Amino acid sequence: MEPEQDNAEKPPGRGRRRRAAQTRLGGAAEAMQAAWEREERRPRAKKARLSTVLYTENSEVTHEQLCGFLKYAIVGESGVPKPSWCQLFHQNLLNNVVVFVLQGMSQLHFYRFYMEFGFLRKAFRHKFRLPSPSSDFLADIIGLQKKETTGDLSKMSKGSLPSASSNVSINLQDDPIIQKYGSKKVGIFKCLLTKEEMETFHFPLQGFPDCENFVLTKCNGCVTDNSPLFGLDCEMCLTSKGRELTRIALVAEGGGCVLDELVKPDNKVLDYLTSVSGITKQSLELVTTKLKDIQRKLKALLPPDAVLVGHSLDLDLKALKMIHPYVIDTSLLYVREQGRRFKLKFLAKAILGKDIQNPDRLGHDATEDAKTALELAQYFLKYGPKKVAELNLEALARHQELHAGDQGQSSTAGVQQHNASVLDCLHLMGQKLLLLTRETDTSELSSSRNCATVTCLSNKEVLEQARVEVPLFPFSVVQFSFEGFSPALTKEMKQRLRVKWTEISTVYAGPFSKTYNLLALKRLFKSFGPVQSFSLIVETHQPHVCVQYEVLEAAQLAIESLDGILIDGIRVKAQRPVTKLTLDCDTLVKELEQDAENRGTIYLAGVSETFQPRLLQESSLFVGLEAVILPKNFKNRKQKKYSFLKFKTFGSAQRALSIFNGRGWKLKGRHALTPRHLHLWLQSQPPESRSPSGLHILPPPFEQQVNSEGGPPEDDSPALGPEDREALPQPVPRHPLPHPVARNQELSRIAAWPRIDGDKK
């Protein structure tokens, strides 16, 4: 005790003061880390919320998937299947659902005016792409139909579909089938989809970005009105790489089945989609046929002038990964108003008098569907457009939908019908839907017993009414209308956005010594991420370099790491090119980092094949890790040298980033700036674009699924290794970096922003 007292009386020496300061700082860091861990493990009150990670192919959700998700939000798993592309936790605690429809707006508007959509970016944490909607979007998603203008359907028989002889006034000249094909009979050639139509409806075409590995059927003969027709239908399942083929049926003109086989998917099956495909795990246990076997058989079976017939044939060809130039799609052959499509089941009953896709049977029969599509095409060719128009299919479809809505059922079991709409689900639950829209947008919508429609004169009035009315309804649709851009302006804006993204992903750095090792310099820049191009600038007094990166995070990391450091005694400046498109790039980067979708996600460069196993071994260090996204080379499927890690909270991500940037891992990283859908949108603009980056996503244990997509060629040059780092001159910072505790305190202030999970969206 005596020495301690003596020491306490003496003023501490300089070395002891430094050690004491370090101890206090270390204690503060430990206290902050302990607080983070307590926050992670604190029990949270149960509430409805959407899972952080969305498992969707190409970050795109179809209209059917969106509709199924909305129905599940209303009814729960007792009435409809769980969505396969996301998880909704505690559905029974969901207070209400609000659907905002911004009619006339697209992703182009969102990215072009990204800075103006600050609230939208923070309020909606999840963003994904939708296919181009039809002009009757509310009917597709919600079930709201347009008013009948063809007569009094209430007098028709309620037992089955009314016949063509029903007393309904028809103006054939206004029928979309007559407007497209005319009233005279047509041949096969007239019914074929043109190349422009195939491009519009997303058929696989040679030379397009997403079709590099697709196989040509080698059908390059001259099609005539005597060319053979083949009905085609495929069933798919959901795997770690998206949708894959599980069954194919090919039917010849006489009705004979030419090919009917089960197919073993190449990747792990996540969902057999049994309710639609009829395929189960047991069905494929003994199957050895692979996709390449089916491709080889089809090439051998189809003659040079073969015409494939199917219903939504683009999906079948994508599942087959094949390109065929001559197709008749019955969902497009029987043209419907406003770009909508008739279902195959409806056309079979209305035109052929056949009942297919029986709900009592497990899934669809691919042979039956292929044969039905073929017979529908043959009927159209035999009787001509006028006969089809006289059937008044639009009125028949409206009558069937109204009849199905009026039947009513006492339990949610009825929701399991394939064609039940969101409106039907609300009716079965005894709930009403609120529709808020402008007066001009609702003039043709039919009234419904369980839909309260409020019409307004302007978008501003729609917003004001929404604030009052939405809390009173369990399900609301709020629709705003905007004027779209002209095609010329749209094309110009897309091009400018691509140029801007290229420029902000480009780094100019220098000056460097004229004797500097160029190979070491290349490796230095590649250590921050994948490089698209590297060029040496010699027009200046001392050499500079221009580096274009594949991802924005790599460019930002290079600027943050290199700007102001000393290399060979020369202070280096790293910056983006200064153009009119990059003047606000610093503000844009800050806003991207604060985007709700990027919060909690980090970017890492320099990962190797051992990264994933080591991450799993040391998973206890990374509390709150939800997904590991490993981009892959599109051609050779090799893992690229960077990754994205998604965490539950910003604090967890920041703590993990400090670990990865330490000496133990020897990685470089920062917080993410770009969500997947932004990359995919920029890369989906032909012809300058490339295919989307391949992704291997490792979800959290409670969501063991995998998703993958294709990507551009990878730069195979070696990344900067330990021996390379030693050979490089050591950079000397101009100013000392802030202490980790200081950085954590700054980030704590950022993390204090209110976090909106979108649990009621």
What can you tell me about this protein's structure?
The chain is α/β, with parallel strands linked by helices. The chain is built from 27 helices and 25 strands. Strands 5, 6, 7, 8, 9 and 11 form a six-stranded mixed β-sheet that branches. A hairpin with a 2-residue loop joins strand 5 and strand 6. Helix 14 crosses helix 15 and helix 24 runs antiparallel to helix 27. It is globular. The N terminus and C terminus are likely disordered.
Features:
single chain, alpha/beta, 6-stranded mixed beta sheet, 35% helix, disordered N terminus
Number of strands: 25
- Can you tell me the overall shape? globular
Largest sheet: 6 strands, mixed
Please give the share of residues in helix.
Answer: 25-40%
Question: Beta-strand percentage?
Answer: 15-25%
User: Measured on Cα atoms, how large is the radius of gyration?
Assistant: 30 Å
Set out the fold topology.
Elements lengths: L1 H8 L4 H28 L7 E2 L12 H13 L12 E2 L7 E7 L3 H6 L5 H6 L13 H5 L34 H6 L6 H4 L3 H6 L14 E2 L12 E11 L2 E10 L5 E6 L6 E3 L2 H4 L13 H11 L5 E4 L2 H8 L1 E2 L3 E3 H4 L10 H9 L13 H25 L2 H15 L14 H7 L4 E6 L12 E6 L2 H11 L5 E7 L5 H18 L1 E5 L7 H9 L4 E7 L6 E6 L2 H11 L3 E2 L2 E2 L1 E3 L9 H10 L6 E5 L5 H7 L7 E8 L9 E6 L2 H11 L7 E4 L4 H8 L10 E5 L23 H6 L12 H12 L10
Parallel strand pairs: 3-14, 4-10, 5-9, 9-11, 12-13, 12-14
Antiparallel strand pairs: 1-2, 5-6, 5-8, 6-7, 15-17, 15-20, 16-17, 18-19, 21-23, 21-24, 22-23, 22-25
